Amino acid sequence: MAAPGIVVMGGAGRMGRMLCDLVAASDAVRLVGVTVAPGHPWAHRDLGEVRGGTPDGVPVTDDPIEVVAQAQAVIDFTTPAATIAMSELTAQARAVHVIGTTGLTPEDLGALDRAARHATIIRAGNMSLGVNLLVQLVREVAGALGPDYDIEIVEAHHRHKVDAPSGTALMLGEAAAEGRGVTLDSVADRGRDGITGARREGAIGFHAIRGGDIVGEHDVLFAAEGEQVTLRHRATDRSVFARGALRAALWGQGKGPGSYDMLDVLGLR
Fold this sequence. Notes:
The protein is α/β, with parallel strands linked by helices. The chain has two domains: 147 residues, 3-Layer(aba) Sandwich (Rossmann fold); 107 residues, Dihydrodipicolinate Reductase, domain 2 (2-Layer Sandwich), CATH 3.30.360.10. Helices cover 36% and strands 24% of the residues. The longest helix is centred in the middle third of the chain and has 17 residues. The chain is elongated, with a radius of gyration of 20 Å. The relative contact order is 0.15. The model has no long low-confidence stretch (mean pLDDT 94).
């Protein structure tokens, strides 16, 4: 049986290039196509050639229809609009859609749920295996410590990140809220400035730091009278996200339609 064919979306970006290298180096999958934004100078050329090497037979296109039909999985770290458009194509092609895109709105998530009726969608705000173990720990600790412990989530990323809180911070907030049996929307506090008054009981606070080339750091602080517990994850190389996404693409082969996340991939559900 041939190795699954993978399409990498946004192959000209930092994460896209890393994914292309990882997939091309793997014996378990094949790189069958790369997409770029409409009008990008790489479009309709050979990937090896545009990256300064010899032609490798991998087409680069700004029309995803050209390559999705050849794929068993699409790995997507792009923009909400591009992700939603791709989800319609992967649903038609019955291809696994691995989504690391952040900044998705409730309307976007509804569109993905509709696509998941026909295709396997694996979505996570962070594809790192370590972060997803942290999510599980946060859920358990929040449930065990109870409401006497205030929860604050602090995240740090590079200066170019455009959304806040990060998708990972929101994953951690959702896990903490689930551990307490509440919804995140009802307890989230996304920033304080000026005379804010005392901290709202039961709130889950979010704080975003942006600077330099920070890959990604996330702290979850549980603070009570007399003690504090901090759970931390620090990524020092973006390859951890690419490796997690590739693992998800392989795990999704043969799965039925539906919405999954990295906890499913890791067998932690």
